[in-house]
Amino acid sequence: MLAIILPYYKISFFEETLQSLANQTDKRFKVYIGDDASLESPTVLLAKYKGKFDFLYHRFNENLGGKSLTKQWERCIALSGDEEWLMILGDDDYLDSSVVASWYTNFESFKDQSNVVRFGTKVVQQESNTISAIHTHPVWESASDSFVRIVKGVTRSSLSEYIFSRASYKKYGFKNYPLAWCSDYKAFLDFPDGKLIYSINEAIVYFRISSFNISGQQENNNLKNETSILFYQDVIKERIEMFTKEQKLELMMAYEVLIKKSRKLKVEEWIFIIKRYIIYFSLVPFLKSIRRVIISILKK
């Protein structure tokens, strides 16, 4: 059975989330709602949906998401039972009516072959009141190829669009980055655990960007940038062997560019980069990196 984990904090778009769950044509799922000591109680709203789908609501006495969003995800998952598959759905995201049905229809295709399943997505831009075209994926794809497509800007990714095995979650957990920024990226490099990601493109998850969520907020941009840099360092240190030689060089360049967008590289960062260019040696990228180091020194 499938557990849909719903970390709750803000009520602004929550009814649309609940309605999308009530609209599912296949009700073989249970929802676990973890209220992060919100100032906006959802109990009246939840009463409307009693009997429309199976859910458990629990209010935590302490707000944890403000300190560690990944820890809030984890304690919400801990509310769930013994379901083998998990989805974490944002309290402002929503599903089209066929998501659960499509998951079960495709189950035999990915059973024992994949630990991570993802859906097609559309991005809801709240401020402009627009919805993007559908983002689809190869039916079978390695975690490394998927991530490189994200790095290149060819595709996008968000936590809500994935279903993952409890076994993989228990093995790896979520990396506790500030604001949980890039924690989903790290998870979906880890959770596949050597298997391919399976995509269901005919069912859609709607991901909302608004001033109410972290993705749409500008005031934390510096922290987001530094966290992204830390994430890239972790990928290069821990997961680089997943990638081809060409992809390794692309990641190194993306890491370097990411830092330069917000500040100058530190000496230890240049050393880190140069060492990797030597390890993954390719003459032209190596010579270009040396040239960039020299230019950086001369500018000081």
UniProtKB/TrEMBL annotation:
Domain of life: Bacteria
Molecular function terms from GO: transferase activity
Entry keyword Aminoacyl-tRNA synthetase: no
Signal peptide residue numbers: none
Keywords for this protein: Transferase
Domain Glycosyltransferase 2-like: 4-112
Gene3D superfamilies reported for this sequence: Spore Coat Polysaccharide Biosynthesis Protein SpsA, Chain A (3.90.550.10)
A UniProt-annotated Pfam family: Glycos_transf_2
Name of the molecule in the record: Glycosyl transferase
Annotated organism of origin: Flavobacterium pokkalii
Organism lineage string: Bacteria, Pseudomonadati, Bacteroidota, Flavobacteriia, Flavobacteriales
